[in-house]
Amino acid sequence: MLFVRISSALAALLLASGIAYAQGKPTDPQIAHIAYTAGQLDIEAAQQALQKSKNKEVRDFATNMESDHKAVNDKALALVKKLNVKPEDNDTSKAL
Question: Domain DUF4142, which positions (predicted)?
Answer without folding.
Answer: 27-92
